[in-house]
Amino acid sequence: MTLTLWYALTGVALLVVGVYGLVSRVHVLRQIMAVNIVGAGVFLVLVAGAHRRPSGAIDPVPHAMVLTGIVVAVSATAVALAFARRLRADADERTDGAAREDEARAG
Amino acid sequence: MPVVDLLALVLMLTGAAFFFAGTVGLLRFPDVYCRLHALTKVDNLGLGFVLAGLALRSGLLTVALKLLLIWLLVLLASTTACHLSARAARHLGVEPWRRA
Amino acid sequence: MNDWTAALALFLLLNLVAGLARVWRGPTPADRILAAQLFGTTGVAIMALLADALDITSLRDVALVLAALAAVAMVVFVRRVWTGQPDPEEAADAGR
Amino acid sequence: MARRERTRPVPADAPWIVWTVVLPLLAAPVAFVLGRRGLAPFAAASSLGVAASVAALAWQVAAQGVQRHRLGGWGAPLGIELHADGLSVLMLVMTAVTGVVVSLHAHGTFGLGGHETREPSGRARFWPLWLFLWGGLNAVFLSADLFNLFVSLELVTLSAVALVALAATRVAVAAALQYLLAAMLGSLLYLLGVALVYATEGTLSLDELARGAPHASVAPPALALLTIGLALKTALFPLHFWLPPAHANAPTPVSALLSGLVVKASFYVLWRLWFQAFPGVAPFEASMLLAVLGTGAIVWGSVQALQATRLKSLVAYSTVAQLGYLFLVFPLVGGPGGLAAWQACAVFAVSHAFAKAAFFMAAGNIRLAAGHDRIADLDGIGARLPRSFFAVGLASVALMGLPPSGTFVAKWMMMRAALESGQAWLMVVMLLGGLFSAGYCFRVLARAFTPPTDTPLQPVPGSLDAAALALAVIALATGLFVAPALDLLAIGAPDVAGLGQDGPR
Amino acid sequence: MTAILWAFDVVLAVTLVALAAGVLATASLFRSIVLFIVFGLTMSIAWARLDAVDLGLVEAAVGAGLTGALLLNTLGHMRSQAEFTPEPSHGPGGRLALALAAGTAGLAIGAAVWAWPDAFAGLGDRVDTHLAESGAQNPVTAVLLNFRAYDTLLEIGVLVVAVVAVWALSPMRGRVLDADPPGLVLAGFVHLLVPVVVLVAGYLLWMGTDAPGGAFQAGAVLAAAGVLLLITGRVAPPQLQAIVERGAVVLGLVAFLAVGVAVMAGGHAFLELPDAWATTLILLLESLLTISIAIVLVILFAGGRTDAAHPPEDAAP
Fold first, then answer.
1. What is the ipTM of this complex?
2. Which among D14, D92, D237, E278 is least buried, having the fewest CB atoms inside 10 angstroms?
3. φ and ψ of C24, to 5 deg
4. Could you give the number of structural domains in chain B?
């Protein structure tokens, strides 16, 4: 059970917990956290695989991939949270009648 | 075991002891305010000792100065956090614990 | 000597895990964010110890970043989240 | 070894393959910074610029064969390469033609303000996002690197989600959020597949993967993960839950772009992986499963479309159904006549893009005129909107797969390949699908034959109807231009016949 | 030594999975977010353990810092405006089926991971041979900004699209939350901390070419300083009305494209950094990227345009 295998399996475990959480929960904030946990699991699998060089050094390509992945995950999470805030702000407008206009257009 | 390493070890062990005290305080104390004491006072002291031990072990001035900067930043963050949460708790009417 | 720093890092990690109980139980939201604040400091200590245990000097930069951003979560919590109404979820918890 | 894997001197004429990706990615931030100042001329110039570079690249590929470009000057395994072969060029042309026409329609629609989106300056918001989407699509169709495809797909997804949310109604933002979460999960499953591939093959380049014999123990699960991730992003039944609300509630031109182009991007990646990067890795049963799911998509999508109350959700469900056709081809490609099925699928994808975009634009025009798009209440309005309903009619002909549309030729080739490889049931499914699409298209067309009533109608600007009509005519004309498309597809086509997937055992 | 580190790995892995399960299992949303912040912190320790210092830096700045702040900020918006609706989730039968399906999928992937060859160099050797020509000593920076610079270009595109998406979202009519001025201690804290954080960000940026660090780490740390200024009202949320603000957002992307195209004029391939100029170009790109990333992340934190501050009409005519 090398270091690589142990952290890769941890990544797979995080992935399973994340996917189960994403599918079974409904609240949007928790779904966003679940997707981030799935991401963390995938990134762990990637980086664990980069730790198997006989020379002991690391393989930088998966590290660069995961760095790009983290930045992409942050931007997607930020957009999802902005949408969640927008939905909540819209819920506020219910009181001042904008809702009826939505329903009318939505048909 | 050179003397410097021994001294560093002693410092780090006391630091760890303070961390342990901080965690016990966090778990055992009755209300928010007591836990604040446990948290912000003890863990800073603990961190201070650990970083002092590590500075000794590294033996480099640059590393020691960086660890000092880290300690000062954590001091700043902890005191502010303690003040903010205590004031907010007081403001929102969290009653301090009184011996029944 | 590295064994000692590694052992201490393990000890602090166990401390962190023990502290999680407060995050779980903490009656008021302040307790939970306080525990997170403690874990931030413990994280800085673990990172500094690992820098010595694994002989990776640049881990101290990670400790520096963690130290610099230790209070961001707390500040956002106090300014944005804890606006005072009784925490409905706590009530929901208590009700259950 | 040479100091650096020196790139072959850049081919004499300009690297259009690079400009096709760089131009939209450069125009988009400039459009964002400009805001509303001089938007119309800039938008026209950048659209024509990108379309011109796609045309130049198409000519270059047709004349000189597959174009390659080593980005950063590094060789395949270390660096990333762009490849343009027949299939990618056909997809690029599809994106360019559909994109230019739909952006004309969008320019008109968002100019009306208030109708499609509550935002007064919708145009200043549409153009940067559309140019990013176009850049992302071009990047997907040209990339020859597994991880680069991940980042390109992410660029496409995020700009598509932002475009859906442009409608700014509560329903649209909720649909955009569900779309974003489903697409994020799909991307991460795809990335896990990439991780498994890299961990054993040590390369991310599609060409090197195609040449090397993949490890038997890791390739199948890796391909399975890649397939599930991409199927979620392509909205293959039963993973299609996010598509109907997103496409039905988005602004009309955005729905046209999403249904026509965006879902094709992730399908294109799946197509590349199965038949070029991992030839013969997937067992025949797996491609049969995809065909069964495709059949399910056709049946489920069509049934939902037949019951849809709103015009735009009818068209959205029709997308779910038509996507099913693309997956019917997987078991055919291995067997005899496989190359014809492979080419037919590409032609179907292209002509469906034109037809679906035209249908969505026409539906949007009807909605603009009537103020709502409840199909039941369109009685009496149909007769008074001749241009819009004519466009719906033409688009329906193409969707149903009647001659002379490209869909007809594609279906014909697919059915022949199904017969040749002895899987006649696929032919039955295709015919059934055609019948279904006729069913839900006539639900809409029947409204044109109701006696006209005097309900007040909004005037529809001529440019909007012209855009819908133009694309509908193009959808029909593709049937006449299938021959040059097939020649184009022959460039760099994989030798699918020798895939080792023996037909039905 | 390895026995202790081995115990460390076991405890770390168990903590990670427990935290993930905790985040998704608790009923209280706030408790989930706090557990998620601790999860980000534990992940940065995991990266340290796997010799991934660059990732440790990004995770520390983003995972423990920004994402936590983003989530808390959104919870703040949500909590103050709408009641807490306990969410319906599938019945016990459905959950069991889901758990079984996810579990078997996990086992299949675990088996695939188990079959990995033990010693495997991947592209590491190839990166080492060309590291000298790449203009950067830190292999991760060399891969990010030279060997696979095209990936980073598209990734910056994703960041800019995220900002355009949030900007395109129609204005938020919710009330602005932190109208009241910050207390004395908080103002003093920010006054003291922000210069230090900016210095740390500059330090990380400068270290980037030779040691772990670089544009993303520096940008994320700078963004945390921006969030602090924003939260305490020292800086108004950027409304992206002015050209300068929008220019700063797209600065990194346009500079990257400009360098890539300019190089092509010299007969090289797209984004092929000539050896002599590689280091200076990498440093130039990293500096501009840091500015853009910091501004993008602050705008993403501030969310959509708030109606109260500016009329919805766009800038200029």
1. 0.92
2. D14
3. -75, -45
4. 1
